[in-house]
Batch of 2 targets.
Target 1
Amino acid sequence: MDESVKKIVIHPHVPSQTTELFVGRHLLSKELLSAARFVIVVDQKLKDLYGDALAHCLRADLIAIPSGEKAKSKQVLDYLLEELFQLKVGKDTVLVALGGGAVCDLVGFAASIYMRGIAHVLVPTTLLAMVDAAIGGKTGIDMPFGKNLIGTIYPPKAIIADVETLSSLPETEWINGLAEIIKIGLIYDADICDDIEPFTKNPALVLKAMQAKIAIVQQDPLDRSLRRMLNFGHTIGHGLEAVADYQIPHGRAVAIGCLAESHLSWQLGYLSMQDFLKIQALFHRFSLQLPKGYTPQALLHAMSYDKKKSLGKLRFVLIDQIGRALPFDGAYCRNVDHEELKSTLDWMEEQYG
Amino acid sequence: MDESVKKIVIHPHVPSQTTELFVGRHLLSKELLSAARFVIVVDQKLKDLYGDALAHCLRADLIAIPSGEKAKSKQVLDYLLEELFQLKVGKDTVLVALGGGAVCDLVGFAASIYMRGIAHVLVPTTLLAMVDAAIGGKTGIDMPFGKNLIGTIYPPKAIIADVETLSSLPETEWINGLAEIIKIGLIYDADICDDIEPFTKNPALVLKAMQAKIAIVQQDPLDRSLRRMLNFGHTIGHGLEAVADYQIPHGRAVAIGCLAESHLSWQLGYLSMQDFLKIQALFHRFSLQLPKGYTPQALLHAMSYDKKKSLGKLRFVLIDQIGRALPFDGAYCRNVDHEELKSTLDWMEEQYG
């Protein structure tokens, strides 16, 4: 193994299966993988930049799909599955996802259901995909009636995070990924939050965030307790995305969500005002604004479809200090009724409306 | 636990998850399950017969879907997923499949992908579903371009096999299930084949076949070696179904498939002529006829999409005596080239064309 490549082995829930994570530079031209056959699924915008070279390196077929969140649609899934069938892809083939979180989620899902499961490898090319979508095996597509409501938990055979691909990322994409990094810091690793200020496309921080997410996921691969803390900021974040009809970047929705759920943690008496103000400062580089169409009622309605809901009650992940989510008897979320939410919703409107 | 109910605990691949199998009579009105909420998905033909009573017993919502293989279509899957969403089904809900193999396969698949996996229970009401579809966690739907090509391996929380439901089954449905029972006997348990002759809707034989399949599946839940022996008769069987455009009962296709693959086992020098003739006798109650449109070429083309195929070669499960599939270095299937297949394909046409 080349010294410039860091390799970490992740142990998901299926004992016979492990995920190899490679982090380093210029990894797309290195021979890190072996299989009878590879098929690469690439964001069409990245085909020329990385796709053709990787296809050459792996002697792979290449399937280009639409860019962005559109990739996670039923239409693209159907197209991809039929392409795989037409290419006579069998159980000995490894699918490779090359692109952002949407491509990773789509390809993971396709791999998990094609012929009842074939192997796949994720090659995330955005900060958000590296620290979030690629880690933990969650896959999914969006349905006309709800985002990410259809999916599986299906760990990849390998993840290749080439930090070199981040150098060409636009600033807005950085900010997008940064929201998830801050979130991981807030719930699990205060050090990460300390490192945020001087953040200037620092690969060490990327690795640190990936490792924190891996540590959480390995303790609860099937999302039954500890792992739920990763939903911090996402009950409100997902609700805002639905209110905005998904015309708001995920990172910005999560940023507002993290702030609002920190406010809620303070309101309910768990978090100190001092920590809350520190958290607000962490997000100073974000342009936080509630989406058009936002009302507390619209948000409450959107949140009523939240996946964490139990017996009709909304549930929130809460923190009691920077770097620590509250366990609540091991469930890592707590019922919050509308009355308890009210002042946080009002505060959101006042601050960011 | 009532003495008339036999309970077996199955251990699938996910350590934290087990399947409870209940076998007995009049189980649909017994309180065997507990959950925050149940939603029953029922074959519309069984709604009056069993659906309403079970819904009452479980205080469940009821979703009726089309009968037969149509249930396993993308259209019905989309309908079901949207109904679940509209009913605000959350992670605390258990889906219950009530019907034949198609309903079990569809509901298992829907449960495996809805919100990245919710729990489900199978209540098979046909012989084929009890001994085959319900055991082993395979789920799936048919796509316009291929049957069962999309699916997951996702074990149910419980299986309830009420043998009383079999008493109303038509004779053709019995024969359908019998083919899979004989198959299990041929590859794994010669005793089952000995019990076939006096077979007259014998619940003890149903349980024996279920137990044999459970024993196989538990040794290889993810279908990587031993479990593949269950594909005996299915390389040709699936091919025949495709040639017949799925207008042939699965049991009949599997019956011809088992006979033909026994013939192949003999041709290749593994199986004795004496055993082959015994196997032929086992199928004397089946009306075996090749589907319209059958030609060796059409079958070879259809088989070229087989899921077991590796590096472009067709692979077959083979037996060397009644009750024993050949291991072939633990792969439980062997490459067979077109030349080796020829005399078996000719024999099929001669006998059943």
Target 2
Amino acid sequence: MMSKNLCLKDIIGRKEKFIIGLNSGTSANGIDACLAKISGSGYSSKVEFVAGATYPISREFQTLILKCAEPSFNDASAWLALDIILAEHFAKAAGRIIKKAGLNPEQISLIGSHGQTIRHMPQTKYGTITYQLADPARIAVRTGIITVGDFRVADTAAGGQGAPLTPIVNAILFGKKDRSIGVLNIGGIANITSIKSNRKGHEIFGCDTGPGNMIIDWLTKKLFQAPFDKGGKLASQGKACRAIIDNIIKQKYFAIKGVKSTGREQYGDEFCASFLKSCKKRNLSKYDIMATATQLTAIALSKCCTINGLKFDELLLTGGGAKNLFLKRAIKDELPNSQIDLVNARGYHSDYLEAISFAILANEAICSNRYDLTTITGSAKAVVLGKICQP
Amino acid sequence: MMSKNLCLKDIIGRKEKFIIGLNSGTSANGIDACLAKISGSGYSSKVEFVAGATYPISREFQTLILKCAEPSFNDASAWLALDIILAEHFAKAAGRIIKKAGLNPEQISLIGSHGQTIRHMPQTKYGTITYQLADPARIAVRTGIITVGDFRVADTAAGGQGAPLTPIVNAILFGKKDRSIGVLNIGGIANITSIKSNRKGHEIFGCDTGPGNMIIDWLTKKLFQAPFDKGGKLASQGKACRAIIDNIIKQKYFAIKGVKSTGREQYGDEFCASFLKSCKKRNLSKYDIMATATQLTAIALSKCCTINGLKFDELLLTGGGAKNLFLKRAIKDELPNSQIDLVNARGYHSDYLEAISFAILANEAICSNRYDLTTITGSAKAVVLGKICQP
């Protein structure tokens, strides 16, 4: 009746663990899976990338997920069903990445799964409400591997916004003694993590800096009928108009010190159309417009650093925008005293950095490491993130 | 930034643990809390009852919970809010039972929380869907105590119905070497756990036996305007009509061998009204009717034992019906070879047996003990029950 094959206690005691990280982003177009070899924990973790892949989600299923994630969607039964279907997909993704790495499930110590965010409402009357689907208990039973999931709830219970959690991982992966490190993640929105070492370990600060690729992508579609400015080639043929940038940077948002987050709403159609109009008023060429939008991202970062007193010996770039060479150069111009590199140069493929984050956080949960996210999510006390589910 | 006060590993290693169990039943009229001292785990657990209490839920809040639990209710946002409010109530109940026991939170190793069932749908096209509110991660953060919750999901992922889980606990609490034990829980519906020791530990079987107090309570209200037959006094003044009972026991349900469950629907208004009609046709007195309904519960148990080949050296009674002396005697008549006792005689107050169950299951989860519930919930493989959440 009772058996005891795999013990949580034994897994905790393992010096070296193969851990899988699973994640599906807000666009829900695929499940990112990665497999890492992790030894130690906390700031003395050693994390070795073993394998990564993105397993596409069918267009039909993606449509269903996106529908369920709409703010106006409120069908509880549909969520309960989706929770189960998504967990089965996540479990399959775990199985596939194990195979890709040439390993057996028995060799895997843990899975860390972010799940699929279906609702994220900061600052309601109940605090932040955040809800991820793909039940980790189901992933554990299906794979036979201890699975840690639901990473955001504990932070919201402690008064935080449950996001972002990547700054912790950036500190674990990239933090150095005697050197201050910045990690700039350039997605639609750009966010920065600053990691300064101190006697206790690391002092971490993180916030959104403003637009990342959102305006650039919008303009590339509008002016060049292409999805994005590959390598920054379009921008590099123009010259940025500083007056337009300065006008934007004067806005209140950029003067806010400390924790802040920007939504997609802020730099959507309306903002981009008005930006384009200002450029045309000044008779900028299509290329000048691209250069201006790209330099805005760099100057927004620089403004954020000035206001918050951030200085980096090294600045690591990740996210889609990291591949934009014009942007990279513009950032170098703004922060001439920082050594600028891609995270790829540190051995981590930027496409799988989020998935690897949850492998790392699973390890942290098992080792009962508490993080104080006051300066990142606004939480009131240090908590352990994640629920541990055994098969 | 990072701290490490309380380690999961240390808690697992503790020989003796104070553990809190929390539960709120389908009637949602209060949170049952109990505190137990548990040493060891599995079938060699030693469980000592320390304190128990039921903390009432306000009528207003109860109404909200019951509304949210209606099968037709489908408002996802309301569930997300209720999840948070309930967790705060559960956390408070934990705080109060610690105080009542004269202990400090630092002395408590674990909380096991069942939460509030808000949806239970066996055998949908996705398997059993079961959903409990009062997020254990929130309880953990609020109390500062590691909390295990969401006990039913893993079993449903393994193909089971996620319920009942109490047979495992009955085996741990009452199982004996060389003696076969039965535990009869007489609520509205009655269910039996049979525990036979074998070389591997215990062989457990559990199922509903049929009506418990449902018909008796209905008739007491109808014929005597009282909520229930206290001590079985009404029934003891009458004489049961065997012909009526035999007619009911002939029904298909009582002939089903193996795992089966009965719903409240089956012995509701319709059944009770028809039962009363049959009694009146035979000119039974009010007291004879009570005796007949009460003996039906005993004979339904006996029929279940015959069909499933169950024999008990000891039969332990729990639930509201255990206090009905006429029923106890009727059971003794049906099972003359069994020694019949109340669970209270074994040191466990029957009012807190469910709450204590989740304290025990929390300990089992931490110790990674897997249970094969094939003969109870219909699951396909042994799993560890519960998600572990650290503060």
